[in-house]
Structures are given as C-alpha cells and as structure tokens.
Automatic annotation (TrEMBL), chain A:
Keywords assigned by UniProt, alphabetized: Kinase, Transferase
InterPro entries reported for this sequence: DhaK_L_YcgS (IPR012737), DhaL_dom (IPR004007), DhaL_dom_sf (IPR036117), Dihydroxyacetone_Kinase (IPR050861)
Span of the signal peptide: none
Organism: Halobacillus shinanisalinarum
Name of the protein in question: Dihydroxyacetone kinase subunit L
GO molecular function: kinase activity
Automatic annotation (TrEMBL), chain B:
Cross-referenced NCBIfam families: dhaK1 (TIGR02363)
Alphabetic keyword roster: Kinase, Transferase
All copies of domain DhaK, residue ranges: 7-329
Molecular function terms from GO: phosphoenolpyruvate-glycerone phosphotransferase activity
The protein's name in its UniProt record: Dihydroxyacetone kinase subunit DhaK
E.C. code: 2.7.1.121
Top-level lineage group: Bacteria
SUPFAM superfamilies according to UniProt: DAK1/DegV-like
Presence of keyword Kinase: yes
Amino acid sequence: MELQVEQIVTWMEKANEKVQDNKEYLTSLDQAIGDGDHGINMARGFKEVVQKVSGSDYETASDILKDVAMTLMGKVGGAAGPLYGTAFLKLSASVKGKKSIDYGSFVTGLEEALAGMKQRGKSEQGEKTLIDTWAPVIEEMKKADGFDCDLLSATAKAAMEKTKDIKATKGRASYLGDRSIGHLDPGSVSSYYLFTSLAETIRGGK
Amino acid sequence: MKKIINNPEEVVQDMLKGLIAAHPESLKQIPNTTAIVRKDAPVANKVGIVSGGGSGHEPAHAGYIGEGMLDAAVCGEMFTSPTPDQVFEAIKAVDSGSGVFLVIKNYTGDVMNFEMAAELAEAEGIDVEKVVVNDDVAVEDSSFTTGRRGIAGTVFVHKIAGAKADAGGSLQEVKDVAEKVVVNVRSMGMAVTPCTVPAAGKPSFTLDENEMEIGIGIHGEPGIERKKLTSADEIAEELTQKVLEDIEFNSGDEVAVMINGMGATPEMELYILNGRVQEILHERGLNVHKTFVGEYMTSLEMAGCSVTLLKLDKETKQLLDSDSNASAFHS
C-alpha cells in the first residue's frame, strides 16, 4: 500500500485525539523532569494542525506534510516546536511532489526527519529525548518490506518505555542529572502517540 | 489555582494588551504577533537588540525595552520559547540596516527557535549575531549536558549590549561586549514555594513547610537539591559562595550585584539577604559598584530569590551606568 493524502489527514486527527486526551498526562511527565508545558504546547499545536488540514483539498502528500510542519513550528514553541516542525519539513521535502508515498520513500523520509531533528537539537540517541522513540522505530521499519502496524506500534511503545531508564543529558531534564532516571521522557511519549496513530491509520485502511 | 486571569489559554495576549495600554507612548505590538517593539523602531544607524523567551518572567523581557536597552522583546507562551516566525517579525521590525543582535537564554527551546529565526532573517539579507547567556552556576558545566541555564544575569547583558548599540557600536562590537558580560556574570537561585502555570492549574512541584529547593531555574522546574529551610544569612552564604567559587574574583575587583526576587518575595526579605551578601563581598575585598534589589527575572508567583554577580571592567562599568528609560530597569 501507499500512504494517501486522506490517510495523512486521518493520521493527524488520531494524533491530535491522543494528544488532547493525554494533555494532562504529558504535562505531568514534563513537570517531573522539565518545565511542565509539553502537554499544553502539543495540544495547542495539534489542534491547529487539525484545523488546518481537515477538510482542506491537497494535491500531494508533500503539501499536507509541509503545512503540518509549518503549523507545528509556528504554534508549539519550546523545544518540541522546532523539533517536530523540522521532522515534518524534512519528511515533506523528501517526498516532494508525490501524490502518495510508497513504503520505501516513507522510511527514507523518516530517516531524513530523524537526521534533521538530531541536527536541530544537537542531539543523539540515548540522551532521553524524542529521538529515543524515533530511532528504534525507523530501525525496525527499515528491516520490514511494507507497513506493519503491529510492529510500528509495539516498537514505539517499547522505545518510549525504555526512556524511563535513561539519564537525561539533553534538554531541560539534563539539569536534574540522576534525578531524571525513573521518569519517562515526555517527548518520547508524544512521539509514541504519533507513531501509534500512524499504525491505527494504516490498520484502518486495510 | 487562584489567579487574576480571564482564560488560562489567553494569559499572554491579555497581558500584552494591558502592557501596551500602560506604555502607549513607548511601546507597540506588531499586529498578530506577541512581539513588542520600541515605538520608534527601527532606530536609524543603530544595531537592533532583540531578546525574549517564555512569558511569566515579568518584567523580563518587555520591561527592558527602551533607549539604551532592548529594541524588541518576543513573548512566548507561559515558560515556552516564542516560535521562529514571531522572533523573525521582531528582527525585521528593529533592523535599520545595521544588523540585529539576539540575546538568548540557554534553554534548548530558546536556542533552537532563535537560531531558526536568525536563519530566516539571514535568508532575507539581514545581518544577525547572537549571544547565549548561561549564568546559572547551579548547573555544572559539562559536555554531557546542554550547559548552564540563563537566568537573572541576562538583564545585565540586555543593559550593557543595549548601551553599546546606543553608543553607536557595530554589530561585532555589540557581540564582543555581550560575550564579555556572559564570561563575567554568574547567578544562583533558590525557592521556598513553587509557582503554578495557568494552563496546568497546579504547582510544578511541592515543598513542605520547612523545605527549600536550591538551584532552581526560572521556569518553576525543580532545582538541583532539596533541603531544610535555613536562615536568610545562611541562604545568602550558600548562594554567594557558589557564585564566588565559579569565577576568579580578586581583591579590589569591582562588581555589580543583583538580588532578584522570583515573583512573590517581599522586598524586605531581599534586603535582608542583601545585607549578608554585601558583608561577604566586603570580606572578600570586592568593591561593590552598584547593587540592584528587586524583581528583574521572575518565575510567576514563586517565592525565592537569586544572587547575581557581574565582574566589571572600565567598559562594562561605563555601559552599565549609562542612561536607559526602560520601564523596569532601575537600581
């Protein structure tokens, strides 16, 4: 299968639902080790994304991804805004002009998104950031030869849960040092919502 | 949560409306943004100075807009960095062709958003330089962290970089003097009560009646250590010693002192703290050139304080002393 424009809209709607439902949970995770605004910021950003893309007419998958990027960049703020904004911008650029996205191009796009986030945040895997969800998910997707919603969802969940054991060395949580161990990274959790929403979208389309 | 607000989602816009209404002669808001600029911006032949960050630190940053200080302040959501498009609008509004200088506090989000804004501005042919303020000694500087946070010492960077730009300094000269301030300024903070972000509705952490949090930042985030509340003199000693240990101070050095309240600390308590801080500095043989006591970089209604020391030289001393009509800058 290929990812269609309508599915990207559904993906964003599902992600928005999860972020809105878990707004307080994300914020409480961030209060433990950060500055306590991740849920508030993500909820504001994804609400705007859905307002922008739902019901709009898009020719190509890359156009809608670009609008998602610009909306997140302009509405989320904090560290999450530039990081998620950069990710969607790179993904959009990677599939530029495509009406729908085949599996191989999508995985390549995600790899470029990940590279963009690493560069923007001057961060690597293992530093208790959203990269710790993205990197393992992309790694597993590279091994598969088509969209596998169970694999996608399970990998994202396991990766997100693993951030509990990591000592933060990037982002606001790094100031806590050892006190950050035992807490989930809020960015990894919101990234899990994004990937599990994608999995649900694909499952629905089968 | 008990606050004088209308809607938790709209506190920043509501605040800016009131801020502009209070200073209609000197400030204006760029339409559809949260960027506040000098009414006469851009000032011809002058480097524009832009700072900002999350809201909730009032009077930072808009209170420092004025002659000899900032040309624009970009106000993000509560404790959240403003977005690149907003910072970009501020840069465009203050550029007179002489370039724009950004004063950024060292937080991951602030650095990323301001850097993206600088990239947007450079693509439009505007010269942009920046400094990242990292005065908080609570956070050990190591290659494993994102580095120290920027806190109250940022106000000294605003003042001195702003004065340099006002005196006709070039973009490079403004950058040089701002970097000199960053190298010579150190701060350390503590809290006795937490604060509540309106949209979150509950305190960011809790402290028992007899506890204090040492080494807090300015976002209601927990500090580096929680311990039993001690006397003002002991707090003054703990904070000042940490600051003094971090940078080489020699007998006879001239310093500027800032005793900053975090939003809910009575001036009485800040002055009590200052009494002991000045004694410690005197015992160390340091000459206090100027002391600032009050609320300069707050954290909503957090009760607590920070101590900042800036080692001065002839140039920075003169720039610190020069006039500014920014509404919140006074000693």
